[in-house]
Amino acid sequence: MKYAIAIYLVLFSISVNSEESLCKKVESKGEGHWPLDESKFTKKRANSALESLSKLTNNTSMGADFVSVENELMYIKGYLLKQMTDPKDKEMRKEYCSFIENDAYIHH
User: CB of 73 within 8 A of CB of 56?
Assistant: First the structure.
């Protein structure tokens, strides 16, 4: 019985931690290019980005780093594209994968 429970727990953890990838993995093009995996575009991260942007828009201090704004917008866009993408819809999947390939990287 212990073995059955252990096997179940291992299989369950693998299925929970594995997320179906819609696009091919993007490799770094070298120093300064840090691509993001599809798994980074979560609801939690998108909400965090919204909170960050809200703080920036409500803050009247000057000198905000616009690169951080670009990064936050990228997380929101990536999450929304991911949610709208039906794996069977080739056009939407193509748009999402184009985003992952070309825009899903840490801006600096």
Answer: no
